[in-house]
Specification:
Length: about 90
Amino acid sequence: MRTLALRGGARVAVVAAQWRDAFGVVTRGRVRLELRDGEPGPVLGRGAGFWLRGTGVRALRNPGRRTARVRIFTPKVRNTPNDGGAHEQQG
């Protein structure tokens, strides 16, 4: 789990490989989802949760002046016995 802090007006690109299976929850402020076609998406407020995989979101933007925070949850990766080093994602 990690926390993403977005200062007022800040934008963070969503790179699919880094956000795979990630679930976000807005814990402070508001966050606008920016869609791949360049259109502005919905503005999510405190307590709103969202998946990024397969949603067409290309960036997160803070439309306000105060810092917004998003808590990012991702499944844990673990090694299983006799897997030859392969990783299994747990959700």
